[in-house]
Design brief:
- There is one protein chain.
- This protein is an alpha/beta fold.
- The protein folds into two domains: 114 residues, Periplasmic binding protein-like II (D-Maltodextrin-Binding Protein, domain 2, 3-Layer(aba) Sandwich), CATH 3.40.190.10; 141 residues, Periplasmic binding protein-like II (D-Maltodextrin-Binding Protein, domain 2, 3-Layer(aba) Sandwich).
- Helix content is 37%, strand content 21%.
- The chain contains ten helices and eleven strands.
- Strands 1, 2, 3, 4, 6, 7, 8, 9 and 11 form a nine-stranded mixed β-sheet that branches.
- Helix 3 packs parallel to helix 4.
- The longest helix has 24 residues.
- It is elongated, with a radius of gyration of 28 Å.
C-alpha cells in the first residue's frame, strides 16, 4: 500500500469514529451511552374530600422520594367536587369520605366509557368537637340528631346537662357544620339526622374540616363534627353513644375497626376503569405497608 492510500484510509477511519462518537453523545434516550433512560415525568391529579386532604398530602410528599419523576398534585373542595372533577376529566383520582351516588356513578361511566372503580384506602371516625373547656363529656347520636336536624328539640346547652359555658357565653348552642358538597356533611346527614331529614337553619357551614375545628377552638359555646385526625389543643373530642344513657365510646383506631364507635366510615379513592400504569403504581403503593403506615401516622385507621 502506498503512503497516499494509507493516509486516505486513516482519514476515513477517523471520520467514521468521530461520527459514531457524536451520535453516541447526542442520543437523547441514553441507550447509546449505556446509561438507563431517565424516567418520564408524569403528574397525578387528585381532587376531593377535605377530610382526606392532610392524608393525601402526606402520601404525595412521601411518594416523591419513592418515584421522583411522578408529581402528585392534591386539592380539596369536598367529595362532591372531586367526583365532579372525575366526571369532567380534570382529575385522575377522586378522594371521597362517602360512597358515590348512583347518578354520579352513571355519569362518570358514560363519560369515560369504563366502569367506575371504588378503592377503600382507610377508615375514619367522625369526631364530635367542643371547646377544650366545655364540661360536656358524652353525647348520643339521638341528641346530635335533635340538635342539628330541622325542628329538632335541642338548642341549648342546659338541655345537654351543661349549666355553665366558659367565657361567659350564653346557653344557646352554636352549631358548626360543613358545606353541602362535603362528603362529611353527607355522611353526617345520612347516619345522624336520617336520610330524609334536613339540617336546621342557622348552622355555621365551613369549607373545610380544619376550619370547623379552628372555629370551635375560638368559640366556647360551639359544637361541630370533623375527622378524627383534626384534633388540636384548643378542642376536645366527645365520647359518643348510640342512645342517650348508654356508655359513650371515644373515637380511636380500635373503636373504628371493631365498630364500637357509632359514627365511623370508610375513606375511598374513585377512578374510572383501569388507570395508566403510573397511577396504578401509586394506588398500589398507598395500599402497601408503607402507604398504610402513613394512614396511621396522620390519625386515620389503616385498611385491614
Amino acid at each position: 500500500m502506498t503512503l497516499r492510500s494509507l493516509l486516505a484510509s486513516l482519514g476515513l477511519l477517523t471520520l467514521v469514529v468521530m461520527t459514531a462518537a457524536c451520535q453516541h453523545r447526542s442520543d437523547p434516550s441514553g441507550e447509546a451511552s449505556g446509561k438507563p433512560p431517565a424516567a418520564e415525568a408524569k403528574t397525578i391529579q387528585i381532587i376531593g374530600s377535605d377530610t382526606m386532604v392532610n392524608l393525601a398530602q402526606a402520601w404525595a410528599e412521601k411518594y416523591h422520594a419513592v418515584a421522583p419523576a411522578i408529581s402528585v398534585e392534591v386539592s380539596g373542595g369536598g367529595s362532591g367536587v372531586g367526583i365532579a372533577a372525575l366526571e369532567n376529566g380534570t382529575a385522575d383520582i377522586a378522594n371521597a369520605s362517602r360512597e358515590v351516588k348512583p347518578d354520579e356513578k352513571a355519569k362518570i361511566e358514560k363519560k369515560s366509557g369504563h366502569p367506575l372503580r371504588e378503592v377503600t384506602v382507610g377508615h375514619d371516625a367522625l369526631a364530635i368537637y367542643v371547646h377544650k373547656d366545655n364540661p360536656l363529656d358524652t353525647i348520643s347520636v339521638e341528641e346530635l340528631s335533635e340538635l342539628y336536624r330541622e325542628n329538632g328539640s335541642i338548642s341549648k346547652w342546659s338541655q345537654l346537662g351543661v349549666t355553665a359555658i366558659p367565657g361567659g357565653q350564653g346557653d344557646e348552642v352554636i352549631r358548626v357544620s360543613r358545606q353541602n358538597s362535603s362528603g362529611t356533611y353527607a355522611y353526617f346527614r345520612e347516619h345522624v339526622l336520617g336520610k330524609e331529614a334536613d339540617f336546621r337553619s342557622g348552622t355555621l357551614d365551613m369549607n373545610g374540616s380544619k376550619e370547623v375545628v379552628e372555629l370551635i377552638s375560638k368559640t366556647p359555646g360551639a359544637i361541630g363534627y370533623s375527622g378524627m385526625g383534626y384534633l388540636t389543643a384548643g378542642v376536645k373530642q366527645l365520647k359518643v353513644s348510640r342512645k342517650k344513657g348508654e356508655p359513650g365510646v371515644a373515637p380511636s383506631v380500635a373503636a373504628t375497626l371493631d365498630r364500637t364507635y357509632p359514627i365511623a366510615r370508610a375513606l375511598y379513592m374513585y377512578l374510572p376503569g383501569d388507570p395508566p400504569p403510573h397511577v396504578q403504581q401509586y394506588l398500589d403503593w398507598i395500599l402497601s405497608p408503607a402507604g398504610q403506615a402513613i394512614v396511621k401516622e396522620t390519625g386515620y385507621v389503616p385498611v385491614k
